[in-house]
């Protein structure tokens, strides 16, 4: 039996693999603290669940338009105007089965064979595979060592006639960095100069701390007509399992992506679509309560991580991830632990904490913590992390 060359190039999702292994150990009765999962540990807000129940009772249980319900696309347009100062019409909006589905549809719509897509390091694990699945080539852009951010200078070094697009993720998974207006303006100028399409993943925009400002690159001069903004409800509204994301961009690209969606998933879940209309138009204080709790957890986690000998961790300004530098322990240990994968395996097997190796995101010498976890688990997990590191030496 022959498997496609495309699939052979792909690696399983490291974040899903970590979560799966942790769940398997938990099923055996092992007390595993899972810092690998990238989803809020809060339940979906009650007002959204009530809307879904109502949708079922009112028989919203059939196919919708491929692009999504018109009422939902209108609500998304209102959201963009209110939050991002962006004017879109429903024809510029595509609703899909998760933000990941949106990105895949967009890449398939814009990429030809061996087109290049600029991908900043560190990157969310699925970007790399999605570019490959679109028969394009990921061209990795190294970050500035001090802050995980890519500079306009490093981007320009990697631009060639084959480069079609660049993916920007702010707030960022896995680092929690947030690009400033000035930084995005420099990237935008390059996009205009070299005629690049920008895929801007803004799924974490509502989870920002320290009064940091979120700027959508599409709102900058000359950028709206070359930017696809990706967003959704999974993270801010604790709706990961509901599977709904959306994209906004030029009509030609959105229509092309909808052709692909029409032959793959057809449309997003109809009940979820009704619930998301309510989520966007009738929002209560649930999102802000979750954001404040994430900020509280972040503050505790970063302080504790930076108090561990030979560990340095930058303060994330958004999302719910932290990336401590563990390179010292890879060089000094006596246990044969040489890579971030080795360290994660060592900590999971011996200290029962699940982390994701930095190499999964294209950067060695780091591990990713998700602080979408209870304060109780964070406190105990950091103790296990510190003990595991000490026992390596």
Which labels suit this protein?
Aspartate Aminotransferase, domain 1; single chain; 393 residues; alpha/beta; 14 helices; 12 strands
Written overview of the protein:
The chain has 393 residues and is of the alpha/beta class. The chain has 14 helices and twelve strands. The mean pLDDT is 96. 42% of the residues lie in helices and 12% in strands. It folds into two domains: 5-43 and 286-392, Alpha-Beta Complex (Aspartate Aminotransferase, domain 1), CATH 3.90.1150.10; 46-281, Aspartate Aminotransferase, domain 2.
Summarize the structure.
By secondary structure, the protein is an alpha/beta fold.
Rg computed from alpha carbons, rounded to a whole number of angstroms: 21 Å
- Determine and state the CATH class of the largest domain: Alpha Beta
The CATH topology annotation of the largest domain reads as Aspartate Aminotransferase, domain 2
Count helical runs. 14
Could you say which overall geometry the principal axes of the C-alpha atoms support?
globular
Please summarize the sheet with the most strands: 7 strands, mixed
Helix/strand class: alpha/beta
The separation of the N and C termini measures 47 Å
Question: SSE layout and pairings?
Answer:
Elements: H1 5-8, H2 14-27, E1 33-34, H3 46-57, H4 70-84, E2 93-96, H5 99-110, E3 116-120, H6 125-133, E4 137-141, H7 152-157, E5 163-169, H8 181-193, E6 197-201, E7 227-232, E8 245-248, H9 251-262, H10 270-281, H11 286-306, E9 321-322, H12 327-332, H13 340-351, E10 353-354, E11 356-357, E12 367-370, H14 375-392
Parallel strand pairs: 1-10, 3-4, 3-5, 5-6, 6-7
Antiparallel strand pairs: 2-8, 7-8, 9-12, 11-12
Helix pairs in contact: 3-10, 4-10, 5-6, 5-9, 11-14, 13-14
